[in-house]
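Kindly go through the entry underneath: sequence plus fold tokens. Please state briefly how this chain folds according to its tokens.
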Amino acid sequence: MHQFVKLKHLFLFVLVSTFLVTQEPEIFRNQVCDTPIHEDYAPLMALYNATNGDNWLNHSGWGETCDVCVGWKGISCVNGRVNKVLLFNNNLTGYLPPEFFNLPTATEISLIGNKIGGNIPNNIINCQNLKSFGLALNDFTGNIPSTIGGLKNLEYLYLGFNALDGAIPLEIGDLGAIKTLNLGSNNLIGEIPISLRNLANLEILILSRNNLTGNIPIEITELSSLKSLDLYGNKLTGSIPTSIGNLSNLELLWLFDNQLSGGIPSSIVQLSNLKKIRLNNNLLSNELPANFESLSNLEEVFLDHNQLSGPLPSNIGNLSLLKDLRLHNNSFESNLPQSLGKL
């Protein structure tokens, strides 16, 4: 009888031990917490589980303590709440769970350079304090959620190099604080929304390498803070807006690999800060604007593979900062200016 009781107790011990070992890590760790679970624990562990956290390159601290502000890789806190989630290039796979965005105090989230797929959840709107949001260089699909326009504090949005499709939501124009908007290298379709005219603080706009169609909206030339306009590699048609010269702070203008036609607007010579201009591989025609050589800060000029004609500016060789000039595959006059010898 005593031997039977001992065997029974041994069986129960083995059963309980097996139960504890086979539980999910976060449940087991919760059981040993001496303090209440941190308010941001559940959203972060939802991310960990949905993106195969055990296979991250570095998951130190995650789930090992109940206080996410102590020793969790990539997590920074302010006043005891999560302020930053920085897990770029860390082999995250799987998908983004909606619960992850229940981080009301987060100001920066960067998951750039991983292998996360699926849709971007609509409830990103819950991160109302977000200033920088980066999901570039992943495998996201589906539409850009329109709710993203509700992030009134957002200054930097990086969604490039994914497989996002559909049209650019009009609500993007509600991001009044945005400074950098990068939606390049996706599968976006439709026209560039004129609601972008509302982005008064926008400095960098990257919509390149998509399937965007239609004209370059004239409203873009109202963005007086714009320093970089990158629309190359789409299916844009029509002419370059004649008011392009209004972008007085513009330093980079990349419109190449489209189907733009007409002449290069004369107002382009007003872009005194312009350093790099690439208009190659379009259907542009007519002569270069008068005083084109007055753009003294130019370092790079790509005008090749168009239908440009007429003489080259006689003083084009006076562009002392010019490092790369490409004019081939046009119909320019054969007599080259002597000033080219200065380059």
The radius of gyration is 28 Å. The first helix runs from residue 2 to 22. Confidence is low (pLDDT under 50) at residues 1-31.
